[in-house]
Design a protein that fits this description.
about 400 residues; alpha/beta; 11 helices; about 30% helix
């Protein structure tokens, strides 16, 4: 049994507490100064095999961040600069990536590990990542991501979505790869713009739902289409979700059209999504229409935040900091009050739990000990300043100390 005491920290800016962690799980929270020393009697940090005590110095404590939409297999992070090229459309980005990825060794174990380490640096301890499955890489990218996560000893818990970035029906053989990925442990299978990529929304969705039902996995569909075309596909997804009994297992990624609809149509759509148990993930791009997040909350539509791609052949932007995404969400939606700013931080932490199938993710007894310590007064202060992560605890393991990675 190993234990770790975090002394004098402020969960969400509240009263100071001592947090006792045993075997990677939060075992106790008590008023600061009331906890006994660790079993070794030591007041300094020891090795991973011995009890430790960390002086939290009154730092703010948050749960680990949950990145609900990532692409950790695609990045050239840590390598020489790659200039942006190709056409800016979705199809143009797909074609450019397919033509160039081999040159940069994408995908690779090293590339995925570099991204996961940046996640840890910024306090992300769990992620749902879409991993490309196509006729060129087949399931190699999934194997790479799993190996990278294992090399970090599970510090970042990774859920995999087998993602058909190059299309589904238009590439014969991709459905078989998705089926194989689901059979081999992918948590979900993905889809991509059924109308504009495959030009057969009914066909793509029927095929995906058939695999999901048969294999007992979820569905997570990238949907970039705007306006009524996007809304039409949401309706198809909601109908099939209910028919298949997959409520709570289907997610729409991006879903830009939802914020573009007229108020009455938007309200009806949100109600339909809520009744179907469909969730939503967004990276809150500055050029998109704000989501009707208050209506979505009322209708029970979960919202998750993600970084999307990070320094890849789609875009040179991104650094793995989900707190920056939460701030982008707050600015896009005009959030100003303490309650709303805190909600944006909650989206990046506790509310992200359902996207990685965690029932208990927070600063509570029984939760996996994923804790981020920052020099800040409260959650709104954290959001607007995004200070460095002083300490990151992942599954009871210290992975960041004084802002520096330890893994």
């Amino acid at each position: 049994m190993t234990s770790l005491l975090l002394a004098d920290v402020h969960p969400w800016g509240g009263d100071a507490v001592d947090v006792t962690i045993v075997d990677g799980v939060i075992a106790d929270l008590s008023p600061a100064g009331s906890s006994t020393e660790t079993s070794t009697g030591s007041s300094t940090e020891g090795s991973a095999e011995t009890d430790q005590r960390i002086d939290g110095r009154g730092l703010l404590a948050l749960p680990g961040f949950v990145n609900a939409h990532a692409h950790v297999d695609k990045s050239w992070w840590g390598r020489p600069w790659v200039s942006y090229g190709g056409e800016p459309t979705t199809q143009g980005r797909i074609a450019h990536e397919r033509a160039e990825r081999d040159k940069y060794g994408i995908p690779s174990v090293g590339g995925a590990k570099a991204v996961l380490r940046e996640f840890l640096r910024h306090g992300t301890t769990a992620t749902r990542t879409h991993v490309d499955v196509d006729l060129g890489v087949e399931l190699r990218g999934i194997a790479n991501v799993r190996e990278a996560a294992a090399a970090l000893d599970g510090a970042v818990e990774v859920e995999i979505v087998a993602f058909p970035q190059d299309g589904v029906l238009r590439r014969p053989g991709v459905l078989d790869l998705l089926d194989k990925a689901a059979a081999e442990g992918a948590t979900s299978i993905g889809g991509l713009d059924p109308a504009t990529i495959d030009r057969d929304p009914v066909g793509q969705l029927d095929a995906l739902f058939e695999i999901a039902v048969r294999r007992g996995v979820g569905i997570d569909i990238h949907l970039h289409d705007h306006g009524d075309l996007g809304a039409f596909q949401y309706e198809l997804i909601a109908e099939r979700t209910v028919q298949a009994g997959l409520q709570g297992k289907v997610n729409v990624s991006h879903g830009f059209a939802l914020g573009e609809l007229a108020p009455a149509r938007r309200s009806e759509m949100v109600d339909q999504l809520g009744a179907a148990g469909i969730s939503w993930t967004t990276v809150a791009p500055a050029t998109s229409a704000p989501l009707p997040f208050r209506e979505m909350r009322a209708a029970g539509v979960p919202i998750g935040l993600g970084t999307d791609g990070i320094r890849d052949l789609w875009s040179p932007y991104g650094d793995g900091d989900l707190l920056q995404i939460a701030r982008g969400f707050a600015r896009l939606h005009g959030l100003r009050t303490d309650e709303d700013l805190t909600y944006a931080v909650e989206l990046a932490t506790t509310y992200g739990a359902s996207f990685v199938h965690r029932e208990n993710h927070g600063l509570t007894v029984g939760a996996r000990a994923d804790i981020v310590l920052l020099d800040a007064e409260n959650a709104p202060d954290v959001l607007v300043r995004a200070p460095r992560r002083e300490y990151v605890i992942a599954g009871g393991q210290v992975v960041v100390r004084d802002g520096e990675l330890q893994v």
